[in-house]
Amino acid sequence: MADTACHVLHAPTQRGLTLALEVIMIDREARDRFAQAIRALVAGTITNDEFEGVRFPALDTADPAIAAIYQEGAWHLYSDLEEHRLRGKHAISRKDKSHVARWVLFLKTDLPYEWPELGGARFFALGLANLFTLGVANRFYVKWFKQQGEVDIWPFIRHEDYAAALERPVYLGVTSNNSFKPTPLRGAA
After folding, report:
1. Would you give the distance in Å from CA 168 to the centre of its chain?
2. pTM for the whole thing?
3. CB 3.0–4.6 Å: which of 50, 57, 79, 157 could bond 149 by disulfide?
4. Quick one: which of 39, 41, 92, 35 has its CA closest to 69?
5. Quick check: 19 and 103 in contact, CB under 8 A?
């Protein structure tokens, strides 16, 4: 059985009571498998088609982080029109590698994915609204989405969580004085 954890998000009410908003599943095994596949894809050790073979089983999970990181990030790294490795003309930019490092770092934490999900009926409704408003509805959605957290460190939602994860690098095997540091956090000491 997969190593999973559940996180319940709480919200205080006006009377000081706490309401459980939702339970978020963290599937450790699926996150680890997906993080490894992303790393292999970006390193060019597997092809985009081989990545798809790993990705589909990894997406068979209740952990929303995996689907979100694939749909909003990893899927944009490669073309699915031909089999290739992310090398040479298909190599990704340094900026994209920085984003990938942050996705992998998030997958290696036990933090719940807290960004709003746009799936099912919501996705369909936004698509229709965009059609009828010639894309204006999407601008409102993007503005609203950016207000939900720190988009420059996505999939982390808070700078504190990102900073804490950077202090515990999972692949470098060293403490926070390592030589690799992604883009510094604004306002971080």
Report:
1. 18
2. 0.74
3. 157
4. 35
5. no
